[in-house]
Design goal:
- The protein is mainly alpha-helical.
- The chain has 2 domains: 93 residues, Zincin-like (2-Layer Sandwich), CATH 3.30.2010; 48 residues.
- Helix 1 packs parallel to helix 2.
- The two termini are 18 Å apart.
Length: 141
């Protein structure tokens, strides 16, 4: 299960700069210059810790996979890179075992899973869809 410390530990271990930057068009973005990565975060666009956790987890996925795109890239390329970043963090932090622990603890409703993982609904739904539809797994509720 993802913790903010995971993001900052990853950044420190992999020499990824984390830069607060107000005025970006999105709450967070990953940038690359050669082999060096930086994650810029606009804290003024993030209202909750849950959103911050989601943004950091996703941007870590971009750094882990190198799945980046130019700002003016065609839509297909943008979506492909976003999917790769999502998939990387799902496979690392929202595993079937993590879902099973939540289910075994009695967390079965979507709002309960949001609390268990402390992530927004869309992250939970994306991970559940990935494991059940894309990978064909049966998660026992």
């Amino acid at each position: 299960m993802f913790q903010l410390a995971d993001f900052y530990d990853y950044a420190e271990e992999n020499d990824v700069d984390v830069i607060p930057y107000i005025g970006m068009p999105r709450p967070a973005a990953t940038l690359r210059a050669g082999d060096h990565y930086a994650v810029a975060i606009d804290f003024s666009k993030i209202d909750t810790t849950r959103q911050l956790r989601s943004m950091c987890m996703h941007e870590q996925g971009h750094c882990m996979t190198g799945a980046l795109h130019k700002v003016d890239s065609p839509f297909e390329l943008v979506e492909r890179m976003e999917h790769r970043a999502h998939r990387a963090v799902i496979e690392r932090y929202l595993t079937p075992a993590d879902f099973q622990k939540a289910f075994d603890a009695g967390y079965t409703e979507l709002w309960e899973l949001e609390e268990w993982f402390d992530l927004p609904q869309e992250d939970i739904l994306r991970a559940y869809h990935y494991w059940t539809v894309c990978k064909g797994m049966h998660l026992n509720i």
